[in-house]
Amino acid sequence: MELESMPKFLEKKTILVTGATGFLAKAFLEKILRVQPDVRRLYLLIRASDLASATQRLHNEVIGKDLFRIVQEKWCANLDSFISEKVIAVPSNVYYENLGVKDCQLRKDMWTELDIILNSAATTRFDERTIDGVISAYGKGKLKCFLGHHETIFDIIPADMVVNCMIVAMVAYANQPYEIILHVGSSWRNPIKFSRFRNVIVRYFAENPLFSNNGKSIRVENVTVLSSMASFRAYMAIRYLMPLKVFQIANAVICQYYQDSIIDHKRKIKSVIRLAELYKPFVFFMGRFDDSNTEKLQMATSESGVDSHLFGFDPKCIDWEDYLMNTHIPGLIKYALKI
């Protein structure tokens, strides 16, 4: 398949997407509907007990989001009919046999029509999204220390580049008889180290502080950097655990007057320790991931004259400071952050 015919390749194709309400799947769906509205059909597997619930989640958690603003503006009053023609919400649960799709006729229709399957099913929480939990906690003034070695490389990549690579790969390897692994990341060709990442977010919130519910700006500090788990444990013991122990003794003397406050402090300390354990494998990881297969695909895309603005995924074009300062962190604050 010639890469320059990429949008044409997707025309009249039927695609099955699992985990359709997830972060990456929504970006994929938006891209398909925007660049190739003549796709035949998109079956979206959505965790739900029935069709009504799945359809409601589709409109509330997917199509109704600001991510689909361009698609919404393009189709205007015809949006509902366009979506109903192209997109089918399928109540399912991928944990079960047949992906939890109970409608036998629907299963038969899907298996007969399908050209492409995108498996994007996952279970995640906000604080597990590789760097957003750290940015969020720091901006709210709740992060007093950073855990990580200054030489650690963060393998991060914008979601739209991942989606672009997935679409290009669908075309490039449509008829390949073998499996190929494409790592879409930045650690090999355009790495950003922990020290640089830390400096950027410190600068961002110093210049653009968040505001608390009472309207006051949240002051952030140039926090302590802990370069090992041993230093983290020592820091937590001296700064929090020992004072808490003294507080508990004093509280016992005054008939548990500050018990609620102690419970709150314990909860916060437990949360910090949990986050440290969660991030430990990443913030001390010194390896980099070989993305040579992805680079070859990206070079073939460029040589074929594919619009790099529309389908680009070259990490070398990313200016990390500009991206974090002007795109990622503002987007996080606007769409995901709650004070």
From TrEMBL:
Catalytic activity entry: a long-chain fatty acyl-CoA + 2 NADPH + 2 H(+) = a long-chain primary fatty alcohol + 2 NADP(+) + CoA
Listed Pfam families: NAD_binding_4 (PF07993), Sterile (PF03015)
Positions of the Fatty acyl-CoA reductase C-terminal domain: 240-338
Entry EC no(s): 1.2.1.84
Alphabetical UniProt keywords: Lipid biosynthesis, Lipid metabolism, NADP, Oxidoreductase
Residue ranges annotated for the Thioester reductase (TE) domain, each copy included: 17-129
Keyword RNA-binding found: no
Annotated InterPro entries: FAR, FAR_C, FAR_NAD-bd, NAD(P)-bd_dom_sf
Biological process annotations from GO: long-chain fatty-acyl-CoA metabolic process; suberin biosynthetic process
Family under the similarity heading: Belongs to the fatty acyl-CoA reductase family.
Functional description taken from the UniProt entry: Catalyzes the reduction of fatty acyl-CoA to fatty alcohols.
Protein name: Fatty acyl-CoA reductase
Organism per entry: Carpinus fangiana
